[in-house]
């Protein structure tokens, strides 16, 4: 009993560090997985070869509950026992973790044992990456729309400081950690100053607000004067498109995105901690996408990649048709269709047959979830014409 009281006293001594958000960050960076993620508590599970049986703990999140202190002490004791740590040692490890967490939970019919198809999981991760990229670009330049080329330091941040945690159980839950530490990339010509949030915190805050305004705009357009007001509050086309790609899976009932803010850096402005999208909201995403596309000038891009598919035109099969190119667009590998004719069609045939890269420029657009390069189309002919001349 004395030992238990001693642990309780030690926990009370470090109560400013042993907070649910900090403990969740510690668990997320270890081998723990979430079985239940609710507003007022989480259930975590540790399945490891180093233990005879799985270890579970309930992590309370609502201090107003009468048993909050008791449950928190129990959770800390479970962790101490699992890692054979003293309270000060656990506090030291928790204090070393500086990261904002994003939990993305998919609620979908037909899920078996909390799993989804591998290809859907790959698409989900790619879409989450797209949303964070858009938030990072918008954070760097609030006048941007989250599209286009990212500055080098933003790319460095995305490559180094955005990490994926363990996939969670229960519904399909993905954990993303945005690391906050002194090694994060600094914006060029931006002096450091006390009171200015880290770039990682700013990016995650931008993302949370963009997700929230997307949900609110989809749920009630009357809350906004027009789409421009929603854009001024953070509505972004890449985020809407990513959400649409995530939720177009068959049987999708809802999507839940929640944030755990690192206790080491205070959250200086009000920001939503959880954004839930039901079927009603999801059904509005295609219309919102079209509204945003109509108000944004077409983006002219150059893509380079292999020609994967060719389909002759039904109207004039001798002179051209549509080709599908696998190319990077906005940091993601996409299937981009483009209509070609005449010499450009002949060059596409050469690239397809000889497995050569095909380079083409046009106005990037999206129709019914298919990416297209639209006129005016310019094909880089020099390399392929040279290869054709070299052919015996």
Q: Give the N-terminus to C-terminus distance in angstroms.
A: 89 Å
Radius of gyration: 25 Å
Number of DSSP strand runs: 13
Contiguous helical run count? 12
Helix content: 25-40%
The SSE string, one letter per element, is: HHEEEHHEHHEEHHHEEHEEEHEEH
Shape: elongated
Helical/strand content category? alpha+beta
What is the spatial order of strands in the main beta sheet? 5-6-4-7-8
Query: Which stretches are poorly predicted, pLDDT < 50 over at least 5 residues?
Result: none
> What is the strand content?
25-35%
Tell me about the largest β-sheet. 5 strands, antiparallel
Averaged pLDDT, please? 84
Describe the SSE topology:
Layout: H1 2-13, H2 20-28, E1 32-37, E2 41-46, E3 55-60, H3 68-83, H4 87-95, E4 99-108, H5 118-140, H6 152-160, E5 162-164, E6 172-179, H7 199-219, H8 227-232, H9 237-247, E7 252-260, E8 274-277, H10 279-295, E9 299-312, E10 320-329, E11 332-341, H11 342-354, E12 357-367, E13 370-379, H12 382-390
What would you say this structure looks like, in words?
- The protein has 392 residues and is an alpha+beta fold.
- 40% of the residues lie in helices and 27% in strands.
- Strands 5-6-4-7-8 form a five-stranded antiparallel sheet. It has a five-stranded mixed beta barrel with strand order 9-10-11-13-12.
- It starts with a helix and ends with a helix.
- 34% of the residues are buried.
- The model has no long low-confidence stretch (mean pLDDT 84).
């Amino acid at each position: 009993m004395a030992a238990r009281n001693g642990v309780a006293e030690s926990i009370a001594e470090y109560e400013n560090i042993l907070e649910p958000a900090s403990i969740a960050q510690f668990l997320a960076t270890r081998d723990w997985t979430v079985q239940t993620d609710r507003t007022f508590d989480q259930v975590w599970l540790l399945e490891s070869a180093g233990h005879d049986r799985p270890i579970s703990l309930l992590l309370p999140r609502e201090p107003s509950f009468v048993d909050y202190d008791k449950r928190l002490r129990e959770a800390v004791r479970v962790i101490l026992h699992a890692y054979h740590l003293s309270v000060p040692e656990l506090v030291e490890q928790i204090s070393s973790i500086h990261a904002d967490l994003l939990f993305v939970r998919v609620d979908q019919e037909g899920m078996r044992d909390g799993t989804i198809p591998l290809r859907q999981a790959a698409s989900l991760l790619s879409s989450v990456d797209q949303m964070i990229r858009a938030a990072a670009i918008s954070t760097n330049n609030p006048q941007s729309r989250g599209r286009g080329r990212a500055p080098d330091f933003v790319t460095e941040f995305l490559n180094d400081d955005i990490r994926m945690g363990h996939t969670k159980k229960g519904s399909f839950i993905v954990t993303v950690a945005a690391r906050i530490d002194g090694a994060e990339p600094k914006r060029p010509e931006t002096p450091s100053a006390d009171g200015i949030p880290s770039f990682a915190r700013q990016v995650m805050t931008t993302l949370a607000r963009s997700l929230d305004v997307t949900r609110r705009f989809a749920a009630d357009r009357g809350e906004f004067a027009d789409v421009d007001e929603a854009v001024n509050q953070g509505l972004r086309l890449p985020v809407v498109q990513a959400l649409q790609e995530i939720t177009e899976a068959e049987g999708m009932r809802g999507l839940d995105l929640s944030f755990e803010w690192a206790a080491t850096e205070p959250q200086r402005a009000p920001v939503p901690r959880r954004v839930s999208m039901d079927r009603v909201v999801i059904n509005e995403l295609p219309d919102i996408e079209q509204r945003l596309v109509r108000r944004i000038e077409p983006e002219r891009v150059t893509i380079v990649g292999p020609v994967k598919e060719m389909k002759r035109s039904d109207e004039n099969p001798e002179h051209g048709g549509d080709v599908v190119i696998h190319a990077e667009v906005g940091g993601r590998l996409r299937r981009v269709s483009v209509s070609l004719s005449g010499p450009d069609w002949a060059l596409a045939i050469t690239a397809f047959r000889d497995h050569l890269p095909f380079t083409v420029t046009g106005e990037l657009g999206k129709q019914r979830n298919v990416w297209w390069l639209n006129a005016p189309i310019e094909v880089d002919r020099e390399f392929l014409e040279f290869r054709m001349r070299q052919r015996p």
